[in-house]
Structures are given as C-alpha cells and as structure tokens.
Amino acid sequence: MTITIDGPAGSGKTSVARELAQRLGIRVLQSGLLYRAAAIVILVNRGIISKNALKNSDFSVDMAVCAAIKNDLTVSEVERLSCIEYGYADGAISPYVLIDGQSVEKELSTFGVGLPASVVSQHPLVREWAVAVQRAVALRYDVVAEGRDCGTVVFPQAEHQFFLTASLEVRQKRVAADTQRGVAKADEQFLQKSILDRDLHDQTRKIAPLVASHRALIVDTSALSLQEVVDFLLKKIIEQRSNPQS
Known about the structure:
single chain; alpha/beta; Rossmann fold; five-stranded parallel sheet; three-stranded antiparallel sheet; 12 helices; 50% helix
C-alpha cells in the first residue's frame, strides 16, 4: 500500500505522515530528506557552506547561488550522491539518512537547506536518483510518502492521495514552532517571505512543480489539530478501501 501526502512547508504533511504511518503500522517515506541531503553534499563539497555553519544552522544561500549550482552541476557531483544512505532501522517507522556513514538528522531539518534542496531537485539527474531511491523503498515496504510531488510524479498510481494546505499565518507559526528548523527567533515577516519565496519557486519550477494530483483529496489543515487531520485521512482511506471505485 502506498499513500501520498503532498503540500507546501508548514502544511503539516510531515507530522501527519508520521502519525498516520504510526497508526497504520507502516513506514514514512520522506522525499524531501533526499533532496536536502543532496543539497548538503553539493553545498559542502563546493565550499559554499562549512560543516560548522551547517551544524549551527548559521547560514543562508540566496537564489542566485542556488541557480548557478543547478545550471552547472556535473555528473561527477551527482555520482557523489552515492555517499547518501537512506533506510530504516529494525522496527523503525521513520527513515534514517547518513552522509558518508554519519547521521545528519539535525542538519537535514535546518531551515536554510530548504531553498537549495528545492533548486537542486530540479536537476534531471538528481531527480532521477531520488525517484529511484523512493520507488525502491516502496517496493519493499508499505509507505506513507510525503513531499511535494509524491502523488504527481513519484507514485501517480498510489492507492490513496492527499494534498495538505494551510494559511500563510498558520504555516509561519508552525515553522517557527518547529525547534528542529532553528528559526524560533527569526522575524515573522522574514519567515513569511521565505515561505512565499519557496512556494513560488516550487509552484513555478518546470520539473515536478508543487501541484495537487488530480486524484488527491485537498485538505485545509489551518483550523485542525494533528489528530483531527490524521483521523480524517484514516476515515477517507477506510472509505476508499471499502469502495475503491468512488
């Protein structure tokens, strides 16, 4: 069974996917982790950010730098992505990600990695690599796949597809409240602009833009708690499984 949950930053897709997988006893497949790991490998290898800055969440990469990376990314740099390992510990629902054998859980959640990851994900070779990894995982496990193109590109035939949305204000507050992102003290206007910039980039990119699959049920999570969203999705999954033609 494959369930897809797509949506923009702060829509709740990651938390919902984890809780839904927990309730169903299956695994979470987080596509964004692969692109974030790819961005980290490329940015560090090029010396654009240091490992210390990455660990301290003390950096930002502007669009011009990101665009330059995408435009001149080499085959050898993409081949270097083989240093990324994505898998599951015994009994674990959420994946682990290693770079050169080292855990990078904290670094992957850093807010500043988001835009470079989005830009790097447009490179055909990077996307080919990431999609292959995701599909290989789904062949081994039942998964709740969350990201921005899981229902449209990676798993267009998934049995159950959802697209989460929320107001900008709610999304900004959720991003700020997520301690792993390291932006709790960031200015509210800065965060909202960063989120809108990411939205615009994701929605207008030529390769795998952020859109709801034509088969996805769109759910506005602005006024809903995590449990309410998960309960609603579970209800819809049960309904769809009992009446697959609906």
